[in-house]
Specification:
Oligomer: single chain
Bound molecules: zinc ion
Low-confidence stretches: none
Number of strands: 5
Largest sheet: 5 strands, mixed
Mean pLDDT: 95
Radius of gyration: 13 Å
Strand content: 25-35%
Order of helices and strands: HEEEEE
Number of domains: 1
Structural class: alpha/beta
Shape: globular
Strand order of the largest sheet: 4-1-2-3-5
């Protein structure tokens, strides 16, 4: 099982690649299926980041990060089920 530090390293790589997707390998299962989604208030310049692996459904989140140009933000003023992109119910690594 990957440590929080390993997840943090993967987070940095994937975050820096935004708005492009990254094929960086998941620190836990090794699959290139890491996903990142930012949820924020409308017009905010920072939001909270969900970061997970679609294969093993583990990940971390970051409370506050600047929103890079070109990223599709999940609007916090919509109910969670109407926010896109979707964030699955993944297990948080602490
Ligand atoms: Zn994984």
């Amino acid at each position: 099982m990957a440590t929080f530090d390993e997840w943090q390293t993967a987070y940095d790589v994937v975050y820096r690649a935004l708005p492009a997707t990254s094929d960086f390998a998941c620190p836990n299962c090794g699959q290139p299926t890491l996903r990142m989604a930012i949820t924020a208030q409308p017009a905010a310049n920072a939001g909270y980041v969900s970061f997970w692996c679609d294969t093993c459904l583990e990940g971390i989140h970051v409370c506050r990060a600047p929103i890079p140009d070109g990223v599709t933000v999940r609007p916090m003023d919509l109910p969670p089920e109407e926010r896109h992109p979707r964030v699955p119910n993944y297990r948080l690594v602490t």
